Amino acid sequence: MQQDSANIPFWRDIRILKILFQVLFIIGIILLALFLYTNMLQGLDDQETELSWDFLFSEAGFDIEEGTYSDPSEEENDSDPSDENLKGFWIGIVNTLRESIEFDPSDTNLKAFWIGIVNTLRVSIVGIFCATIIGFLFGIARLSSNWLISRIAAVYVEIFRNTPLLLQILFWYPLILVLPNVRESINFFDSIFINQRGVFLPSAEPAEGFNTWMWYLLSGIILAILVVIGFAVFRYLSRSRELQQTDRPSFVSNLIFSAKWTAAPIILIVPFLAWFLTPDAPLELSRPELQKFNFVGGIDLTPEFTALLIGLTVYTSAFIAEVVRAGIQSVVKGQREAARSVGLKESQVLRLVVIPQAIQVIVPPLTSQYLNLAKNSSLGIFIAFPDLFQIGKIIIGQTGQSVPTFAMIMTCYLIVSLTTSAFMNWYNRRITRFDSSS
Amino acid sequence: MEDNTLTQEIKPPDTSKGPVRWLRDNLFSTWYNTILTCLGLVFLFLFFKGFLTWVFTQANWRVIPANLQILMIGPFPIEQVWRIGIVFCTLLTLLGLSAGIWRGIVLQMAIAIVGVCLLLLLIPLDVVKEAENTSATLEFNLNIFYLIFIKRIWLLGGLVLLVGTFFIGRKKDGLKKWIIGGWILSFPWTMIMLHGFGENTISTTNWGGLLLTLLLAAVGIVACFPLGVLLALGRRSQLPAIRWVSTVYIETIRGVPLITILFMGSLLLPIFMPGDFQLDTVIRAMVALTLFSSAYMAENVRGGLQAVPSGQVEAAQAVGLSYSKTMIFIVLPQAIRAVIPAIVGQSIALLKDTSLVFIIGLIELMGIRKSILGNQDWTGLHAEVSIFIAVIYFVFSYSMSIVSQEIEEDLGVGNN
Amino acid sequence: MNENTTNDPIIICEDVHKWFDDFHVLKGITTTFKKGERAVICGPSGSGKSTFIRTINRLEEHQRGTIIVDGIELSNDLRNINLIRQEVGMVFQQFNLFPHLTNIKNITLGPIQVRKMSKKAAEEAALALLERMDIADQAYKYPSEVSGGQQQRVAIARALAMEPKIMLFDEPTSALDPEMISEVLDVMRELAHSGMTMLVVTHEMGFAREVADRVMFFDEGVVVEEAAPADFFDNPQHDRTKLFISQTLQH
User: Fold this and answer.
1) Predicted complex: ipTM over 0.95
2) I want to staple C122 with a disulfide (CB 3.0 to 4.6 A). Which of A39, A406, B415, C111 is the partner?
3) Does the CB of A40 have a partner CB in chain B at under 8 Å?
4) Domain with B165 in it
């Protein structure tokens, strides 16, 4: 038997000390929280604001110019008459989605906040898309055997990586504002117009066949899911007979495997197949057209959005280029040689050996660059881009409810970043398991 | 530099065959490389044609020399510049001694700083400004002498001290403890010198420009260090309560943008602090930057802690060292050494991030930029000012990244 | 029995149990080591022999039973743990030298920080120990700059610098190249003759036969057999012991 713990004075007993230390620590934290809380109540009292969530449902009273969809039919110019004829479930969904980003000053603060979230997501997602493409291009260019190309890429990366993003955004923004005016827009094929009010792009609008097309699409996707699951079950059952208990891949990994081989082609093919099956065209092109004061129709990117997007894309692409370069370089030369000695062709070496391994190295830092881009989109506040943060700030200015609004802003960012890090943990576990099993 | 070695890895250049061979190997090796080279040349030609035309014909560069002083030190009273000079010389003296004693990394940093200083010394921006006011050539020459050497006496003095003390440091190994103490004291010393006391107090609202940018970055990275180390240890603690609190802190801070923290400092702090509590804006920004970067520092240090084998802790325990002594003497020195490149990377990020503090009303480089552009004489010159400021940031951040690359190589060699 | 062994017990283990989660590593070890005794512990890997000697200086915590070292019970008492770690020196398979400190600083760290010796006295003692280990000329080098055998001798010196009453060796020669094993064994032999109480986990059967007072054979968390080396090697009682000896001696 171990010595009776009663014989040890408690201030020397490790077990008790551990608990005591933690209890004291927690008490300290609670006291700090209490101190802040009472101060907050006092502080709010001094400012004559009351802590409540009611402000979310009161009228916003300010307008948001950015990222909100304004229904053309509500404005005086009668646009598409066919709009009236469009009916059906999916058209309804599209209209609901559009309504969800309609905004006018009589809407609530909560709605305004939602528009902010949408704007943040919009600029982040488009930014991530563009930054990935440009980043990969420059990352590969830096490794090019062509001296000139690799030098140009290196200069690009070093310049944009080593100067503050804010400075870059504030550099691009005025450049857009000195572009030609609306009448003298820079015109690409009568579809894309660039002027000091921003960038105007054509868009795809739902047309007659849209509803039918979406039903076909949905059935295609359900079919794809069924095929994936069926294939996975088949593979799981057949493999588990062959392999021993320890080597047997889990059902989830079977699912991933079969998703990779069956779902991707189905999802690529189904939309086109559905397009042919639909009698009327499901989508139609809407081009920006010059009206009295501005362009109407298509997608309209404001100067703020454009400047923020360029800034985020260029800055992040420089970092992504570095990530890609490091990833490819980490796939050691020896492995390429080994693969080549087995008799693989250069293109096969790249596809079968270098890229899969490089991707493994690239994904974690790439994800954190994506996260950085999303967080950096808050710099839009410096050029009055109405993102989550800017709208939060306006709401605070109007209602004085700084504490709840801040809590909401932080929660939004935290949801995104914690989900991402959860994904990263899952990914890293998967990769390490993959490594140890092979 | 490093890019040559990269291309070498894929295709070692044949240096013995002369320039024609080099051109063929590196620019025209295959038909698509030839096309790429041509496209690159066309792009470069168009870019430089446009850019250089703008630089030499359209841009109005007078805005830079006219505002050089305010860009460098903000509205700091010019007759009190000796304070900055003394701080500068103190720091360079310490750096020189440290470089002499420790060599390695410190020496590389010192060399980088010498480079930056020489650049500042030899680019006669203010000469241009003075040249416009003077007509007689003789006077002009004297002015150049005056401007380069007398007005930059502090810069020159600092450089001389740095190089001189380097050689002293090489001889005196016993100074180590004094120098570490000196570095610790240098921080309050800097604050006292810049702030002054009694009648000559200089309000922090007069701190600005590059001076404030560097000050904020330095404070952020130095002050976050102890907090970051504690958080990293906390996150790896065996005690669940401490582990959880550290993890929540780190993940929360890392999950939100810096602007949120800065705004909390300016909007929420007054609410959460007792009624009469007042905090200087500069101090507030420093606290916010410290709290922010400590979470990132914690993750860096944690990476280093994971790299220290558990046998090290066991050996230290077997010798009888307590937890804190094990950490201080055994684990942390190894952990931190392993993550120095990451810490330098974080310092670069923080230097760039200081640009955000102008949103809470500080006049560091970005704030100065705004106030220059707000001046009627210089409206519309945003590109000129932005490019100049970009060059300043670039010089600092690029030289730091070169130092970091060299450290990385050194560490790699040491591990083998 | 050698001339140094006394009858005073210095380590008393009674029914020591240890689990790693669900895995029962030590299943009730009861034994006593006498002052000046040299015990060699052997057994197949995973038998719990390393875990056992690691419980003696509390690198592993035992969950049931009693361990008394030099009259101090190992328990959750903070003071006792610190006292025992000063009494017990340990040498690891992987040396575990501190790579950022020179060899001499590796040795003086404990005496200066724990025993509160002056720097000068600690360095003199350390140099004397290095002299004894025959590597005085390596004092100011870093561990990475000397050979494995030399590193292990520095590690032994580091443990001895704390002037322990007991030395634990956890497979001290397993990580060494063959030509370096003998230089470490020589040092250990010399230490054995000086009268130090030693617990050695090792596969070096020659060393066991020559130096040990007692050989203990561990398997699956229990002491299967313990005997004087002559009896143990020439007349093993248990089948498992016989198998182990025949396998080990073949190598």
Assistant:
1) no
2) C111
3) yes
4) 77-200
